[in-house]
Design brief:
The structure holds 2 protein chains of 2 kinds. By secondary structure, chain A is an alpha+beta fold. Helix content of chain A is about 25%, strand content about 25%. The two termini of chain A are about 35 Å apart. Chain B is of the alpha+beta class. Chain B has a 6-stranded mixed sheet with strand order 2-1-6-5-4-3. The longest helix of chain B has 17 residues. Chain B: One of its GO terms (biological process) is 3-phenylpropionate catabolic process. Chain B: This is 3-phenylpropionate/cinnamic acid dioxygenase subunit beta.
């Protein structure tokens, strides 16, 4: 049986309480596949993965497998990897270069634009009458945002730009190089894919803005991972200039960013890669170029955030995108793309690659402990006895302000300062809206 | 001496004939596995050359005529592991702190190496190929089984060896488990 709308008591984001069943219930999971994933723009990859005509790679749009291609006209296509005849995946490889994909089952052949170009027994079997236009691969709507590729199979979803709203400021900044140049990143070749026994939302909410969980990372803080020569895992820890920590949420779309906002524009560079002088020099130079390019907005250090529902980005020296592929209430595939500034010298790219590979993913000295948390939280979400008690998201509730402390964060920015579960409350509010709950983003928290 | 364990060439046959190079390498890998399984990570680090490279690329599903691109490229693409001795030491320090929750409490592991073949011997370096099975049991229920191929460059060091380079080719494209908190 399908639900038409979610029980409003499940997510009472206004009171900061969330029922555990949203992480464990199969029916809720099926509904979120339809109403959240089915109606959202989803990241599928980056244009630097397919630089040449004919290049392709496979990706996921939620549970749906897709092929992302660059066709002969240099257009990017996102095609459902399902033969329209009998449902086989038409592409069996993770990546490659091909003008067409032939289904191994009955030989239906599709161009890398999705068009049905080859139909065995076309005249004898179909009397030459099968409408090839109708039976091409199912094509997603596609949006390219500063090199990142987004797709949706929904006709109802608003445009990508409308879905992103004022979050565009943060996503654009993330896709810039450290020198503030737009579309300044390229992928490191290869996507990490791994599987965790956890609901997809635990990872998403953590990246929305959980500055409370630092205790999880004591082990890596102690060892020191950043190449600043100091202890700690973030290079920016070396910058001692004063800033506000902001949880910048965009309730209309459910997106959020974790931001340090430095008090002064045009601040000086403070060495963050001291162990590698050549790399430090590159970042010093990039820092001043960025300050000049961005002016007042250069006060932002965009640490990371999420694009609702399932995309996290980490920036500020840790350029990566993490995608949650929901497989079951308690099973999630995680895909990770790493990025380096495309105009950086090879020595910088090498240093970043080493740092990134030790930071994230299943071998990441930071993310290993995150994954452990998410998988362990799932145990509590499935506990029969604990179900009477909701999960608690009340940390620092009731302090957020709109378009604060700087109006250029956007009219749609709803911001809380410091260690807070504000962005998580906004995430679940948006989730509840898409699941059929009451729309009251602006009243959020104010209703208390 | 490595930790408390003698590294003298072992007696491997009843007639006390000197062990062959292959037998000595087999014994070296068995000792290495034992140190890891005992979580004697400090002693394990001693088996690595100071300039060791430790690399595990990521496998992809690739068309039959492009198999050379099956694994990600060294020093260029992503990898599961791409380590030197300093970063391996950092990983050991993290494991030993008691607050690395992905490995606290420690998993139980069994390292098995087999199908050893000496590929080449040049000056003081020996290149070997082998297969590995690494079994991991974490807390109560979690079981991870890693199977794959390894290429090792060993450097002769006194009576023993040190690992100068290890390349680990895991037989998985998507990692079927949440973490790689184990050394191979």
């Amino acid at each position: 049986m399908k639900r038409d709308s979610i029980d409003p008591r499940l997510v009472a984001a206004g009171s900061g309480l969330i029922d555990r069943s949203i992480f464990a219930d199969q029916e809720i999971f099926e509904q979120e596949m339809r109403d959240v994933y089915g109606k959202s723009w989803l990241f599928v990859g980056h244009t630097s993965q397919i630089p040449d005509k004919g290049d392709y790679f496979v990706s996921q749009a939620g549970r749906d497998a897709v092929v992302v291609t660059r066709d002969a006209d240099d257009r990017i296509n996102v095609l459902l990897n399902v033969c329209t005849h009998r449902g086989m995946p038409v592409c069996r490889y993770d990546k490659g270069n091909a003008k067409r994909f032939t289904c191994p089952y009955h030989g239906w052949t599709f161009a890398n634009t999705g068009d049905l170009t080859g139909l065995p027994l076309s005249s004898e079997g179909y009397g030459g009458k099968l409408d090839r236009k109708q039976w091409g691969l199912i094509k997603a709507r596609v949006a390219i945002f500063h090199g990142s590729i987004w797709a949706t199979f929904s006709d109802e979803a608003p445009s990508f730009d409308d879905s992103l709203g004022d979050m565009a400021l943060m996503l654009r900044e993330f896709m810039q190089g450290p020198d503030g140049e737009d579309d300044g990143l390229e992928t490191i070749e290869g996507i990490l894919k791994y599987e965790i026994h956890s609901n997809w939302k635990f990872g998403a909410e953590n990246n929305a803005g959980d500055l409370y969980h630092d205790v999880s990372h004591n082990s890596v803080q102690r060892v020191g991972l950043a190449l600043s020569g100091l202890r700690g895992r973030h290079v920016w820890d070396a910058d001692k200039q004063t800033f506000k920590i902001l949880n910048v949420a965009y309730p209309a779309g459910g997106h959020a960013a974790r931001v340090s906002l430095y008090d002064k524009a045009g601040r000086d560079y403070q060495s963050q890669w001291a162990m590698l002088p050549e790399v430090d020099e590159y970042f010093r130079d990039a820092h001043y170029k960025r300050q000049e390019r961005l002016g007042e907005q250069g006060r932002i250090l965009n640490r990371g955030g999420i694009v609702f529902p399932n995309i996290a980005y980490n920036s500020a020296g840790r350029w990566q995108i993490t995608m949650w592929v929901p497989r079951a209430p308690n099973r999630t595939e995680v895909w990770k793309w790493y990025f380096v500034p495309k105009s950086a010298p090879q020595a910088v790219k090498d240093a970043l690659r080493h740092y990134l590979l030790r930071y994230g993913g299943p071998t990441g000295m930071v993310e290993q402990d995150d994954i452990e948390n998410w998988a362990s939280a799932q145990i509590g979400a499935e506990s029969e006895a604990a179900r009477r008690l909701p999960m608690n998201y009340t940390l620092h509730m009731g302090h957020a302000q709109w378009a604060w402390p700087e109006p250029w964060l956007g009219e749609g920015a709803y911001v809380d300062e410091g260690v807070s579960e504000h962005a998580q409350r906004v995430f679940y509010q948006r989730w509840a809206e898409m699941m059929g709950g009451v729309v009251h983003a602006r009243e959020l928290e104010a209703s208390l | 001496m490595i930790g408390d364990i003698e590294r003298e060439a072992p007696v491997t046959t009843l007639d006390h004939r000197a062990p062959s190079l292959k037998e000595r390498i087999e014994d070296f890998f068995a000792l290495e596995g034992e140190l890891l399984d005992e979580r004697n990570f400090d002693a394990w680090l001693e088996l690595l050359a100071d300039d060791v490279r430790y690399w595990m690329p990521v496998a992809r599903n690739i068309k039959h005529d492009a198999l050379e691109t099956e694994y990600t490229r060294e020093r260029q693409d992503v990898a599961w592991f791409d380590e030197d001795k300093h970063t391996l030491l950092q990983r050991v320090m993290q494991l030993q702190g008691g607050d690395h929750w992905a490995e606290e409490p420690f998993s139980r592991t069994t390292h098995i190496t087999t199908n050893l073949r000496i590929e080449s011997v040049a000056n003081t370096e020996i290149t070997t190929r082998c297969r590995f099975i690494v079994y991991v049991n974490r807390r109560e229920q979690e079981i991870r089984l890693f199977v794959g191929k390894r290429t090792d460059v060993l450097r002769v060091d006194g009576d023993g060896f040190r690992i100068a380079k290890r390349s680990i080719f895991l037989d998985q494209s998507k990692l079927l488990f949440k973490n790689l908190t184990t050394f191979f």
